[in-house]
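Prompt: May I have another protein with tokenized structure?
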Amino acid sequence: MPVLTVVGAQWGDEGKGKIVDLLAEQAQYVVRYQGGANAGHEVVVGGQNYVLHLVPSGILHPGTLNVVGNGVVLDPDSFLAEVAGLEKQGVKAKGRLFISPRAHLTLSLHKALDAAREGHAGQTTIGSTKRGISPTYMDKAGRVGLRLADVVDPAYCMEQLKTSLQEKNVLFKHLYKSKPLTAATLWKEIQRAAKALLPYMADTEGMLNSAVKGGKRVLMEGAQGTLLDIDFGTYPYVTASNSTAGGSATGSGLGPTRIGYVLGVCKAYTTRVGEGPFPSALSPKQDQQLRELGGEYGRTTGRARRTGWLDLVALRYAAQVNGLDGLAITKLDILDTFKEIEVCVAYKVNGKEIHHFPATSAELAKAKPVTLKVKGWNAPTTGARTFAQLPKLAQSYLKLIEKFTDVKVALVSVGAERSKTIMVDSKLKSWKF
């Protein structure tokens, strides 16, 4: 099947935007299948930077159609502002960008609740972006949410809003000491957005299934990363959706049997933004060095990312739960100047060595990394366009990753530009999966 799913294989920020943009050149459709405006994909084309939050990365290819799937929670203001920004940069969106009628809407209500919860004393600090993502998914699961298709029915919307506010206003007033909201105010907010949003609504589930049936190439784009997945991530320090490969089916309307290849994206080292355990974290001095070399600051929030050596235990786990067919290693060039590199190959918990990824954050927080030291290549990789052109020690580093994870390296990125890429797996060139 000509359907390729791209997933983050770490804690997000792996460089998925560049990889999707690169592969989208051969795709007819690019689908964003989960997450919301908390995602931030940066793509560099011709020296110009494009930062995408809700719009699929395929938008930068004029011949590609782009779909915001049913698994995405859509912030109308963020979406419309992003489209307007792209238009100013010369990127046409209208006629090429479609939203599933089943996508749930993120409203000011959700953002207010998110901010109140994250800042409330006694509440576990997750490291939320405060974009209203979790409260929107909570309403979706609680069956009081609103989908794009619902905005054409005022009576239904008002009933849903009133039901939702019954509980939330108690929280706002008595727990968070905030001003209660009204259904009428929220309905006005929806009405303002609906006129601009409805032209983008389409039967995307039917569109995608017809495309696959007709042999079209469909690229599925995830946000966040495996270790932030609501089920398989470092719970509770996770996002509110399924960012693993399984989410590409439930979040798009394409059945899992349609997916032909799953590509996991990971950096040549590890980063994490927000709260939660991070076993391979570097010392403060090394952390700052690697952060500056790699430009490790969030594209959506500007928050500094914590940096660490490559965690192969976590990466092997990601390979298992996603069923990875290949790995895309990004930012290999950031390690070019290191004389010695370490990789985490096991954990020590309470003095006992373990080789699996713990199910609880409490256990992972106790984990001390067992590292293997390897000699750095200490030579530039940015000019390499084939695997053979990489320094021998860089090749050895990539082969070590393959051996430990039992997944072949399919692609290597040695710079932010599209051209600075080594395509190793011929399947990614031919899309014959």
